[in-house]
Amino acid sequence: MFSANSMRSVWRSNKRLKISSPFRPISTPHSPSQESGSPSAHNPNTNAVSSEIRTPSAPLESTPKEWAERLDQIGSKFRLPRNVQAVYLKPLRRKAEFGLPVCDLQLRSYSARHVEFFADFALRAAYYLNLPAFGPAPLPRITERWTVLKSNFAHKKSQENFERVTLRRLIQIKDGHPDVVQTWLAFLRKHAFHGVGMKANVWDHSPIGVGKLMDETAAELDTAIEEKLANFGSSNKALEQAESVADLRVHPVYSVRDASRLLYRQLKPSRSLCPRQCRRNASATKSASTPNDRIIFSGIQPTGVPHLGNYLGALRQWVMLQNEAVPSTKLIFSIVDLHALTVPQDPTILRQWRKQLLATLIAVGINPKRSTIFFQSAVPAHSELMWILSTISSMGYLSRMTQWKSKLQLPEESTLDNSDAKSRLKLGLFSYPVLQAADVLVHRATDVPVGEDQKQHLEFTREVANGFNHIYGPVLVMPSPLISPAKRVMSLKQPTLKMSKSHTDPRSRILLIDSAEEIHQKIKLALTDSEPGISYDPSKRPGVSNLIEILGHIQGGADGSRAFAELGREHHHLSMRAFKEHVANSLTEHLKGIRERYLELTNNTSTNIDSIAEDSAKVARENADITLRSVKDTLGLS
C-alpha cells in the first residue's frame, strides 16, 4: 500500500516531468490511431496515415562567416535577447586599411577578471565608433614585494611579506581619426571600471610636406620672437615704461627731457614716484647701444713687459681688431692695475710695470688716437659699479669659479669649506670676477675678446648683467665673447707648461723687448730632444714641436698660423742647431720693430707716456660715467 506522502511525491514528480520532441525518426509497427481507437479510424473521409512517422528535420547548413549573417541565424534560432547573446560572443572588430597606429591604450589592474572585462568593454566601444582595434595583448606583469610590520617590535617574526602583481593589457587603435579617438577615450573615462587604471599614448602624425611648411614659416617665427628675445630677462613693468619712453623719443618733436616731462604730467599725478621712473627709463634707453655701435673692451694685468705668449695670444689680436674695425666701433683697452693688487706688490715695481706695459701696447701697434688705453685705477666708476654688482652676485657662483683656486694652487673641486682655502683666501681674490664684470659693463661693451680660460668669467659677467636687468630694468648691455683661436706658447725650459713670468728661470720666456743676442741665447738653450731631424709631434717631441709652433705663429702673421705639420716636413732635413738658428732669426726680425718703438717711447721725453695715459683716462671716465649715472638713477642714488 502507498501512503499519502508517497503518492503525493509521485504526483509531483510526474507533474515536473517534461517530454521533448525527438530529433530522430521513430518507427512503429502499427498506426497510433488504430491502437488508440480514435474516431478517426472509423471516419472514411480521413486520409490514410503512413505506418512510419518521421520528424521533419532541416538540412544542416554551413556556418556563415560574416557576423551579420551569424547574428541573423542566431536570432532566428534562439529567443535570447541580443544583450544576453553578446555575453557569449567575442567583441566585433573593424578591419584596418592602412595599419597606421593612432593610439595605444594600456589597462592595469590587480585583478585579471576586472582588466579582461574592461578590455572587452573598450573593444566593443571602439567597434561602434568605427575604430579598428587590436588586442588586448598581454604585457609583462609588474611584481612588487612589500613587507608589513604586524607588531610594535621589528623582529622577523613580526613581519609579513606579500607580493602585489599588476596585470596589464594593451589595446591599439589603427587608422582612426584623432577626434574619434579622443571621443573613445572620453567615453572610457566616463564609464571607468573600479580597480582598472588607464594610460593612453595618442600619436600625432604630420603630413609629408610639413618640412617645407616649417621652412616657410621659420622666417616669420624669427621675426615674431625677435622683439621678445631682445628684452629677455627684463621685468614687464620696466619694459612697458621703457617702450613708452622709446616711442616718445622716436618722435622728432620731443627730446628725452620732453618725454620725461610728458610722462610726469600724464602718467602719474604723484610727484614723489613719477619723476624717478621717468629719469630711470630715459637713462636706460640712452645707455643701450644700437646694433651698429660696437664697443670692444679687453684688459691685461701690469706684470712688466709682455712675453711672446701674451703677444701671440692677445695683443696681436687687439691690433687686428683695431685695423679691421669700422670707424663707428669703439675700442677700449685697460691696464687692470687694481686686479694686480690681489697679490702683494712692491709699489715701486708696480709703478714701473704700469708704464712698461703702456709703452709696449703702443709699440705693438695700439694707436692711442684710434683706441682708448687707460689705467683701471684712473676710472673710479669701475670700483663703484663693482660694489653695486656685488650686492646681487651669488656667493655660490663665485665659489665655483676657478680663478681663486688656481691662484692658491688648490684642486678644482675645492670648496669654501676647505680649511686651507679659508686661511689663505682673501676677499679681493674671491671677488675678482665681480670687478671683471664691472670693467666690462661700465663701458657698455658689446664684444669682449677672450680666450678659452677666460670664457668662464665672461659667462659670470652675463649672469650678473642679466640679474641686474631683471630686477631694475634694461640698463646694462649684455656682452658677447670673441673667442680667439688658441695660440698657446709653451715654456722654453718646460715645454709641457705655458710660457709664464711666474717661472723662476728667466730663460724660459722671450720678452717683446729682448735684444737679438738674448733671443738667440734663449732659443739656443731651449729644451729639445736628441732625436735627429725635425718633426712635429707634441706628445713625443714637445720641445721641438714648441719651436715649430712659434715659427708657425710668426710666419703666419696677424691673420693666422701656418700648418705645423707642414713646417715640420719643410725643415726635416735641418739639424737641431740649424733649426734653432732659423727660429731665432725669424723671431728677431719680427720683434725688431716692436723693440725699436718701445725704446723710442721710453727714451724720448717729447713723447710723454703720462700725458697719453691721462688723455685716455679722461675719455674712459666720460664713457664710464654715462653707465654709472644710469645705474644710479635706476637705484635711486641720484
Automatic annotation (TrEMBL):
It is found in: Mitochondrion matrix. Its EC number is 6.1.1.2. One of its GO terms (cellular component) is ribosome. GO terms for biological process: mitochondrial tryptophanyl-tRNA aminoacylation. Transmembrane segments: none annotated. InterPro entries: aa-tRNA-synth_I_CS, aa-tRNA-synth_Ic, Ribosomal_uS10, Ribosomal_uS10_dom, Ribosomal_uS10_dom_sf, Rossmann-like_a/b/a_fold, Trp-tRNA-ligase, Trp-tRNA-ligase_bac-type. GO terms for molecular function: ATP binding; structural constituent of ribosome; tryptophan-tRNA ligase activity. It is an enzyme of class 6 (ligase). This is Small ribosomal subunit protein uS10m. It comes from Blastomyces percursus.
